[in-house]
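Observation: inputs received (chain + LIJDXRAZ).
Thought: call the complex predictor directly.
Action: predict_structure
Action Input:
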Amino acid sequence: MSQLPVVVVGAGPVGCTAALLLARRGIDVLLLERRPAPPAVPRAVHLDDEALRALADAGVAEEFLAVSRPMAGLRLLDAGHRVLAEFARDPGAGRHGWPQASMFHQPDLEAVLRAAVDRAPRVTLRAPAEVTGLTERPDRSVTVALAGGARLDAAAVLGCDGAHSTVRRLTGARMRTLARPDRWLVVDLRAPSPLPVWPGVHQVCDPARAATFMPVSGDRYRFETRLLDGGTAAALTAPEVLRPLLAPFGADGAEVVRAAEYVYRAQVADRWRRGRVLLAGDAAHLTPPFVGQGLGLGLRDVHQLAWKVAAVVTGGADDALLDTHGAERGPHARALVRMAALVGGLMTGGGAGAVPVRRAVLAAVGRVPALAAYATDSRTPPLRRGPLVDRGGPAGRRLAGTLVPRARVRVDGRECRLDDVLGSGTAVLALAPSGLTLTAGGRRALLDDVDGALTAWLGGGRARWVVVRPDRVVRAAG
Ligand SMILES: O=C(O)CCc1cccc(O)c1
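Observation:
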């Protein structure tokens, strides 16, 4: 095994998760952070249950659930705040055993992850440490130059250093714009007593005053509104202007904790890898927030990358495995970023004439497969066909590239979730005459499918067997 650590640049949620995932695979990680302490600014507020699979594999799902709140879904309102449509999310146990959607205050998640990093013997956090150069060596390892002159050698480098990524710049990757940038005001609020609002995301579909309102967690709420031409954050946050905008949500008495202008960008990197330097999270993509997928995309990036990097740096796989990172994550990120921009435009764009169009489009959502899957079930698009995703045959087309449900199972009389018995390698689930079998880690076991969810899922995919990758993505089905 290589003695060199993997260097993860950026100790935000994506970088910390990457470090924990690698450490759990026995890899030493040096986590570098430019800032001496996490920034005290709230950012992401939403994660779906697919992204939670990554936090669970990093060992922090229960702690995340303790600081988050189940979210009821997305409600579209007209200018008069009448409900146009509602896309519900299961606040109980969805197909992965958790609420389908959760709201949280990002600093709470960062505290959970930093505490896990501090507990992880294989992870060393160095902050402040600023990367200034990356040089590939003949043996494919990477020399990382730090501000101040220090140099260190890494088996691989993961650039999880955010929107203004130094690693991206050093690899020569460029962001490609997929939709026009959009200026919004984002206001974080705290209310002295709980507000009587529906516990989901409210999207006001009024082109003249497009707005979003959502309970976050505890006493925290968020309000967002588009800055129209010439509008400024300062003008809109004047109490006499802001209060009437908050009043329909009962939030006019709330304390403004922070108000900032944000430019929502829809961008994806044109390359995700140079040698053993790989990009993930906001370093690789920026998305408008309308489907709440910014952080989820980043967590999925590192969930699908960590096992590949671990395999390559321990000599278990050829470097070519790393080609699949951008090949898989690029199309997935582009699909979701485009979907977010499209949904944002449909919900908030156009002029007065857009109102009937919006109603017609809403009625048609169910006929666009990717939108329908997202709207009704919060499922993100499957990974495209590639060396690790065999979408051949009817079952492969239905199931390969999607996540296997984290169903309730009983093995040897013990009830648990599927992930608890899948192990850290490739696994095969199959319907045999004796029942459902799992082959993982060289062991074959009979699974009792407690709720019948796995059998139903296989049946829905017309499959009798699936091969599941270490990141819980179905590799092949038949
Ligand atoms: O569709 C969902 O489940 C997420 C909706 C969402 C979450 C966070 C912000 C936002 O604008 C929409």
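Thought: report the result.
Final Answer: Residues 46, 74, 87, 89, 101, 201, 212, 289-292, 378 surround LIJDXRAZ (CB under 6 Å). The chain has a mean pLDDT of 94.
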